[in-house]
Amino acid sequence: MPSRSVCKSRKHNHNGYLFTSESVTMGHPDKVADQISDSVLDAMLAQDPTSRVACETMVTTGLVVIAGEITSKAVVDIPAIARQAIRDIGYNDPSIGFDGDDCAVVVSLDKQSPDISQGVSAGAGLHKQQGAGDQGLMFGFACRETKALMPMPIYLAHELTDRLAKMRQSKKLKWLRPDGKSQVTVEYGKNGKPLRIHTVVISTQHDPSVRHSSLKKQIIDKVIMPVLPKRLVDKDIIIHVNPTGRFVVGGPKGDCGLTGRKIIVDTYGGRGSHGGGAFSGKDPTKVDRTASYMARYIAKNIVAAKLADACEIQLSYAIGVAQPISVLVDTEGTGKIDELLIEKVIKKIFPLTPRGMIDHLKLRKPIYTETARNGHFGRKLPSFTWEKTDMVKKLRKAAGLKALK
């Protein structure tokens, strides 16, 4: 049966193409806001795993504003949590424009609306099961381009920002400051497989004392080249390092940061689809977060089980309703079996209710601050349960296929 792919972009035609994804460092103002929101969430969950949290953060010069709705038995010093998150990122020196000790922290929090609460509390609403915390559509994606089963451009972009952080934190590049961005353009062949790295862009905040020529050389030698796969680098690669020539003023002093403003960085770098919902600051009853994690888990296991070389999963929900409204599988023409059969198998072996997803992926633990750095997907950490490929045998068995050797 031919693929039911709904993607019309040129990358699924028979011509080569370029595809670009970006990442940002933990010191980027939007990521600072994400980490504060998720630090508050973790502090709540550590004391009360049933906490209902919708925490939004704004950061700007000398100021942190934390707002939203929280219902919890936890007793948390929220300003202290915010300050520690800022210090952990590396903003601990007033001379760089933002400092966890000296910034003002304003907190404006209310309790969760009782109208929403009854929809996500078992037995409280029209439907007796714990329902979804909101309506919406969520996507998960996986492909064979990297060992993490992630698209190569976003995978390498995250590797670069992670490398920048390690060089800064280890003081191997003492002039580095917390804010920064990476961008990777990959050239794909007619078969849709990566041919070469076309362009890399790094913009990193730095101490004013370092010269641009020295900065560029050290970033190329110590950050970029150790990350890029050697087989995909040739003499024609284009590299831009701090292309404006100077990046001293950065972080919240250089730009206002908001929770949830880097949703493409957080997911697949523009490869595949996005439902529009942000993750950070939301407890696991919010399907924006939990169903996106489950969709990634399903897609990754499908690819790992060799049912397809690429897979996108869409799940959709209605507020207060437990079961998903729809489940869609798109293998972009790479499926080894009928996509409708894959959908039936998914519904049979994967829990898709909010309660089922939370329990299966163990999401009531304080694991979320780490997700707000370097992407929510493609990282092999014990707490990232959605990155496991432990459903491969069940998938193949349910599909009537032999076990992998």
Name a few traits of the molecule.
405 residues, alpha+beta, 4-stranded mixed β-sheet, 11 helices, 13 strands
Q: What structural category characterises the helix and strand content?
A: alpha+beta
Relative strand content: 15-25%
- Segments where pLDDT lies below 50 for 5+ residues? 1-10
The shape is flat
Instruction: Report the span from N to C terminus.
Output: 27 Å
**Total strand segments:** 13
The helix content, as a percent range, equals 25-40%
Secondary-structure element order, N to C: EHEEHEEEHEHEEHEHEHHEEHHH
Major sheet attributes? 4 strands, mixed
Number of helices: 11
Cα radius of gyration in angstroms: 22 Å
What is the mean predicted local confidence, pLDDT? 92
Question: Within the largest sheet, what's the order of strands?
Answer: 1-8-9-10
